[in-house]
Design brief:
The complex is a heterotrimer. Chain A is an alpha/beta fold. In chain A, about 25% of the residues lie in helices and about 25% in strands. In chain A, a hairpin with a 2-residue loop joins β4 and β5 (about 65-70). In chain A, α2 crosses α3 (about 105-115). Chain A is globular and about 50 Å long. Chain A starts with a strand and ends with a helix. Residues about 205-210 and about 215-230 of chain A have low confidence and may be disordered. The model of chain B is unreliable at about 190-195 (pLDDT under 50). In chain B, about 80% of the residues lie in helices and about 0% in strands. Chain B contains 6 helices and no strands. Chain C is mainly alpha-helical. Chain C is built from 10 helices and no strands. Helices cover about 85% and strands about 0% of the residues of chain C. The chains are: A alpha/beta, B mainly alpha, C mainly alpha. The interface between B and C is medium-sized, with 27 and 28 residues.
Chain lengths: ~230, ~240, ~220
């Protein structure tokens, strides 16, 4: 399996975030996305997860040299934990296990709870969880149904040292079994088979990029109204 | 060169700058001729007296009120399929004009209805449909102004315009089912036997053409404004980034 | 996918009855709205029974509107919607299940409570039967049309007001055919044509609404 990204260009809110980005990730690799705020890490991960259309370029997941539907293969964990405060920790997990189509709900639940030490708070309403506990609950979702492609956006935020180590171990095991992980992070994760991709904010964009011709390209004739009022 | 090339904002700005004065002048001319002809050089109706002459405003505004919604439907469709910004912005520009003309149509109808039916408002299918149409316009305008990201707003309002068109048509027929009305049948028809008398026909047609041209001029002007607003936004974003 | 749909419906129902879920609020609103009208226009039963079909239908409409704004918003705010959108289940299915859950927790209670309220308003028995029938046929459309409005306004802060402005005009055909069928039946006339048209509107809505709502959600998740 391999994830191919070719000449990807991403715009958000009329602004160019990622410009002409190409890379490939083979199975068994954890690709660490790094870069300053505004470099487009989250936007890239969201685009890979299918949230939003690329303005140009393409994203392909190849399995045995054939493109496959990415939605069947991916697990996404964003900034928000997708936890319902009105349900207990166990109920939250059980819902996701069923929703994501886990084969053995009971067994998957046990493994997830065990790994992220959620057992003691299983019956507690999620509303009473601390930020770290909520994050653990959100990450435990990754273990409920097997997915080949993990897309993790700042997964280590609000986790304690021990849980970060657990997370790194999980990513390692995921890669060893032929998975791919893309992880946007600001901290150093001790992951064995990692490659790093440095993202930079695009060069100062010319007015009009991403506007589909709403603004004449730089050097083009400026609207007189604009010239008078903005310069 | 295909017609779509005019959907390029820069090309649209150049073309519309040249068209706008002509359209506006023609609109003013047609409306002036239509109204003066209609008001002063047509006979009074034998039953309705001089009050019939409000027809020269009432009918054109009512026709435009409906057709502008149809235009917004088409523009939304073009935006969703071909992603031309001019199309989305033209739909946005048209909505307040449509809402205003709907109000004018209802108000002139009330002025006409007062002496003829003895009441300014009746829960008649046509009147009620226009009331509902006005609410559709309001919802559309409100959704545009509620969403900050302009492309997102364009997409969502386009979805609303498509869904709204289906339900607006449905409402029109539902309202017929709900009540039989006071309102007379269509005034203009291609079937000449049903048409109003010739003396009214030509000034009415002139006035309709005038109101149509006025809409065209206004929508060009407002679309130009919307494009400039988008340019300002783009420049501000570029400046903030740089 | 079957399991996804079923688990989602189960979760929606659980959340609706838990604290802050709002199941029953629509019903309570329905009761209060119907109580207020006799207080406003007087206790004369002949008058009340004449306005009862329209009154009950309008009250049902407003009650259905009440809990719409949270249909997708809570899930957007806590990230659930994002995760669901990246899963294999199409958003169309998600929207349909959400609307169905809204009908089960808001529309269905109205259908069940309506005959009691109709009795207090003096609606004749034939009218009561058709009231229940028409509400059963029509309230699903209210939930599904509402899903479109909820999806369009999911990203708007304090979107409840705009939601009402968008959705209420779309309710017009359902209201007309629904109330008219009850009115015809109560006056001893044949309500069949109105009821059939009502069913047609509902069926059409069940087809269109999930598509439109999913399209709106996709746009809002970008």
């Amino acid at each position: 399996m391999a994830l191919l990204v070719e000449n990807l260009t991403l715009d958000r809110g009329g602004r160019r975030i990622v410009s002409d980005l190409s890379f490939a990730v083979e199975d068994g690799t954890a690709l660490i996305l790094r870069g300053p705020n505004g470099a487009g890490k989250s936007t890239l991960i969201r685009a890979l997860a299918g949230l939003g259309q690329p303005s140009a370029g393409r994203i392909v997941l190849l399995q045995a040299q054939k493109p496959v539907d990415i939605a069947d293969q991916l697990a996404y964990a964003g900034h928000l934990d997708a936890v319902k405060p009105a349900m207990s920790v166990a109920e939250n997990l059980r819902f996701w296990a069923r929703f994501l189509g886990s084969a053995e709900v009971g067994a998957a639940l046990d493994v997830a709870m065990e790994t992220f030490a959620l057992g003691p708070i299983a019956q507690q309403p999620a509303a009473m969880c601390s930020a770290g506990q909520r994050r653990r609950l959100g990450l435990a979702r990754l273990l409920l149904a097997p997915r080949r492609l993990w897309l993790l956006d700042e997964p280590s935020v609000s986790l304690d040292v021990a849980t970060v180590a657990t997370l790194c171990g999980l990513i390692d095991r995921h890669c060893e079994t032929g998975g791919i992980a893309l992880v946007a992070t600001h901290t150093d994760l001790a992951v064995a088979r990692k490659e790093t991709l440095e993202l930079r904010p695009p060069e100062r964009p010319a007015p009009g990029t991403g506007q589909n011709g709403l603004v004449p390209a730089s050097g083009g004739a400026m609207d007189p109204f604009l010239a008078e009022n903005i310069g | 060169m295909s017609v779509w090339s005019y959907a390029n904002p820069a090309r649209f700005m150049r073309l519309s700058a040249r068209l706008l004065p002509w359209t506006a002048a023609l609109a003013a001319g047609f409306i002036a001729i239509g109204l003066i002809w209609g008001f002063f050089f047509t006979p009074d109706d034998f039953r309705q007296g001089a009050s019939v002459k409000i027809i020269f405003i009432h009918v054109p505004t009512a026709m435009m009120a409906i057709n502008i919604y149809a235009m917004m439907f088409v523009a939304s469709l073009i935006w969703l399929i071909r992603r031309h910004h001019v199309s989305a912005l033209a739909a946005r520009a048209a909505a307040p004009i449509g809402a205003t003309l709907t109000v004018v149509a209802i108000a002139t109808g009330a002025l006409w209805g007062q002496p003829i039916w003895g009441t300014a408002w009746a829960w008649d299918p046509r009147l009620t449909s226009f009331f509902i149409l006005f609410l559709f316009y309001l919802g559309y305008i409100a959704l545009w102004s509620a969403i900050e990201d302009p492309d997102k707003a364009a997409d969502l309002t386009a979805v609303l315009a498509l869904v709204g068109s289906v339900f607006a048509l449905l409402s029109r027929y539902a309202v017929n089912f709900w009540s039989q009305g006071l309102h007379q049948g269509a005034t203009l028809s291609l079937d000449r036997a049903q048409n109003i008398a010739n003396v009214f026909f030509w000034p009415l047609l002139t006035s309709i053409a005038g109101f149509f041209l006025m809409f065209l001029a206004l929508v060009l002007l407002r679309t130009r404004t919307e494009i400039r607003l988008r340019r300002i936004r783009a420049l501000q974003l570029a400046r903030a980034a740089g | 996918m079957d399991g996804s749909l079923r688990s989602l419906l189960g979760r929606e129902l659980i959340l609706a009855v838990r604290a802050g879920g709002g199941a029953g609020l629509g019903l309570a609103f329905f009761l209060i709205a119907v109580l207020l009208v006799p207080l406003g226009i007087g206790p004369e039963l002949a008058l009340l029974s004449r306005v009862a079909p329209g009154l009950l239908w309008v009250a049902a409409l407003l009650a259905a509107l009440l809990s719409l704004d949270r249909m997708f918003q809570a899930d957007l705010e806590d990230g659930t919607l994002e995760v669901m959108a990246t899963a294999a289940l199409p958003l169309e299915g998600l929207a349909a299940i959400k609307a169905l859950a809204h009908w089960l927790t808001t529309g269905l209670p109205l259908v069940l409570a309506a005959p009691v309220l109709a009795l207090t308003l003096g609606l004749p028995p034939a009218g009561i039967a058709w009231l229940v029938g028409s509400l059963a046929l029509g309230t699903p459309a209210l939930s599904f049309i509402g899903a479109i409005g909820a999806a369009l306004t999911v990203g708007v802060r304090r979107g409840g007001l705009i939601l009402s402005l968008l959705v209420l005009p779309l309710y017009v055909p359902t209201l007309i055919f629904g109330a008219r069928s009850v009115d015809l039946a109560a006056n001893g006339r044949d309500p069949q044509s109105a009821a059939l048209l009502l069913a047609a509107v509902t069926l059409g809505t069940l087809g269109i609404a999930p598509l439109a709502a999913a399209a709106a959600l996709r746009i809002n998740l970008r």
